[in-house]
Amino acid sequence: MRVLLGSNAYLKRTENRDVPVVWDSHTAINPHMLVMGASGAGKTWNLRRMIQAMAKTADGPVRIHVLDVHGDIDLAGASSVKFSEATAYGHNPLAVSPDRDGGGVRRQIQSFIAALNRTSRQLGTRQEAVLRALLTDLYAANGFYEDKPDSWRLDDGMARKYPKKYPTLLDAARFSAAKLRALYLGADAKAVAALEQVNTKARSIYARNKAMGQIRQTLGNAQADNPPTDPELDKLKEAAIAAYAAAIQGIATGRELDDMIRYDSKDVLRSVVERLESLNAIGIFRPDEPPFDAKAPVWRYDIRSLASDEKKLFVYFRLEQIFRQAALRGVQDLVSEVVVLDEAHLFFTDEPENPLNVIAKEARKFGLGLVCASQSPTHFSEDFLGNVATKMLLGIDEMYWDGAVRKLKIDPKILQYVTPRRSLAVQIKTGTENRARFVGVDLSAAR
User: What is the CATH number of the domain that holds 360?
Assistant: First the structure.
């Protein structure tokens, strides 16, 4: 892939020569880019032309995923799909990767929980434990087991009446609601409630008898150690025994006791059920794949209609799926897939498991590139910046200059030179020099 960025501003000014400045995926040490510019600095225009150039100059088949947060990166010839609560398709965040090293049930559950915890509504410790247990049971009910890698595939060789499928959020919501009903209405729940009544009554009688025993001891009563039995307690014990007998007779799956222990709090389980139902109601996590044109090199995901947390979940889940599929393809010599993410700072966190960090560190060898657009380099960690070979400054607000100088090691004079829509500064690490410097670029040659 080759993208003409413009002409070398220094040579044009000093020697009146138009020497092109070109980004080349063959020479850059990795295909990752960070495009930085304030509102109105030309990010959208530059992203459009870079995407078009990448699609046109790719050495082989390429897929460019454009995650359009504002819905303004419209491109001629792109296959665009809008995502909202009204769509009948989406992305299944519970689909399991069959990769023995980087996939599996446990990995998918952890990724799902981590994505939820990157939103404004983080899970509590008990909620997380209950959700993990629910999803583990849900996967097992669908033939996917944590400790059996062969079961992670859809075609696992097992004979079934119906084809094996990945569970969906709708399945998770229904499954958890059924667990909640069982906790409220099941025979085991009745038995536990009866036992609680017995214990409560026994404690009350014990406290009363202890007090009476102390009084009798003081008075010298010989019956202090043999208090009379309580008919009400005997009645409660009989009811508890009957309830436990019914619970034992009602055992069907052999997991009833485990469920009682794992889902001991109805309030916590109810909160998890409500969270899953809310996620399913968003409408973007359908099992049916979105109707992208398989022949179009550019797929544009229009997510402007989604709320902030919904955008985060969609982006995290989609990035993880794209990376997982790239890893399954194995090592690639050429860049065959690129993700373009506008307003990337909204989705960035310092955690190593964040899909942005994973792709920046590990995706190059799988032929996957990442193009992030944001307002300033100060929104990203030095570790992330160090893993991005190409950094492009389109003009950032003065309040970010000190941070940019510190993080990018850029000469302040370069920042002063950059004029939105007329010039930019770019650093491209090629591996042929110890330190790649920022170069001023005149944009007139690229128009």
Answer: 3.40.50.300
Q: Is residue 430 part of a domain?
A: yes
Residue 270, in any domain of the structure: no
Q: Which tokens go with 257?
A: 């006791």
DSSP 322-376: HHHHHHHH---SS--EEEEETTGGGT--S-TTSHHHHHHHHSGGGTEEEEEEES-
Task: Give me the number of domains the chain comprises.
Answer: 1
Q: Which two tokens stand for residue 171?
A: 């399945």
**Per-residue pLDDT reduced to its tens digit, 115-125:** 999 999 999 99
Q: Domain for residue 142, yes or no? A: no
At 288, which amino acid appears? D
- Per-residue pLDDT tens over the stretch 56-91: 999 889 999 999 999 999 999 999 999 998 888 988
The whole-angstrom separation of Cα 381 and Cα 395 is 20
**Residue 93 per-residue DSSP state:** T
Alpha carbons 237 and 198: distance in angstroms, whole number: 6
Strands of the 390-393 sheet, one edge to the other:
20-24, 2-8, 439-442, 423-428, 390-393, 33-36, 368-374, 337-341, 63-68, 298-302, 79-82
Q: What is the per-residue pLDDT across 305-331, written as a single tens digit (0 to 9) for each?
A: 999 999 999 999 999 999 999 998 999
Question: Would you say residue 237 lies in a domain?
Answer: no
